[in-house]
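Students often ask what a 'structure token' actually looks like in practice. Rather than answer in the abstract, let us consider Short-chain dehydrogenase/reductase SDR, a protein of 255 residues. Its sequence is given first.
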Amino acid sequence: MNVRYDFSGQVALITGAASGMGLTTAKAFAAAGAAVALADLNEEAVQTTTDALKAAGHKALGVVCDVSDEAQVAAMVENTVATFGRLDAAFNNAGIQVPPSDAADETAENFDRVNAVNLRGVWACMKHELRQMRVQGSGAIVNCSSLGGLVGLPSRAAYHASKHGVIGLTRSAALEYAPRGIRINAICPGTIDTPMVADMLTKQADAMKEIMRDQPIGRLGRSDEIADAVLWLCSSGSTFVIGHALAVDGGFTAH
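Now compare that with the structural description of the same chain:
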């Protein structure tokens, strides 16, 4: 983390926290003094990370959660509040990719699955986080969209539909909750060096070559660069930022 924040006495919840951007962001919140709830579908990975944070002296809770299941999401938030007493910040980061496809050949199964996690999962997380935050009259939520929420790319209609949806969800909820002391924003990461992107580099080399060609900064982003942006959006440094979709993409969408 390049900038120092103080989240002492606050509680942060991160989904997709076992790897990549979620893991780095959870560690950043912990380093900044927050108690952290780490949620992920991968039970072993999330528990290993939680144990490591506790061993380092941080307050941490590991929760197994499939965000496409609203009952599990509700239990995740309830567990977080029962453990730590409140909820101040949330990074709704859990997401999946589906293989690129001609729009005419996209399967309903792929469309439904990517939207169940990337869009309905964010909706469910935000819904239950807001139920706690509105009682407190405070809180900050960052929903993970993508550069794919801001632009279109061939062969990625289903994935981009889910990420465009996150921005619409964010903006509408932000307007509703701004008067209640709760800020909601979205982050739109570019191509970040994560396990999911590494898999894409291997399996979709030609597509990734095109994406990298349009990367003005000339490199992949780093997970800590996303964590910096998320913590800023949840901090006192961004109190007038509401309903914004922040591109953190090395200049990709500036074309």
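One point worth highlighting: Residues 157-177 form the longest helix (21 residues). Ask yourself how you might have guessed this from the sequence alone, and why that guess would often be unreliable.
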